Amino acid sequence: MEPVSEEFAGERVWEGLVHVFDVQGHPKAKQAFAWSSPIEESTKRRFFAVLNIPPINTPIDAVRAAIVAAHR
Fold first, then answer.
1. What pTM was estimated for this model as a whole?
2. Residue 7 burial by CB count (10 A; 0-12/13-18/19+): exposed, middle or buried?
3. 59-70: per-residue pLDDT in tens?
4. What confidence tens digit (pLDDT) does each residue in 32-48 have?
5. Which residue, among 1, 3, 14, 4, has the nearest Cα to 71 in the 3D structure?
6. Are 32 and 60 in contact (CB under 8 A)?
């Protein structure tokens, strides 16, 4: 697990723990990153899993990619 904190325009947009898993049998990825975040105005959580394939090389890269994808 790695602690991750991401800021945008001087404000923290996400903070939490990212789990790092080894992946076997995938042609490109050797690891995957996974975490969850609360869904606003809900008691539920959203779960994320991102493969470690460039340009995603670190847990913070994975979180940033998920944030960007969610705001497209």
1. 0.89
2. exposed
3. 999 999 999 998
4. 999 999 998 999 999 99
5. 14
6. no
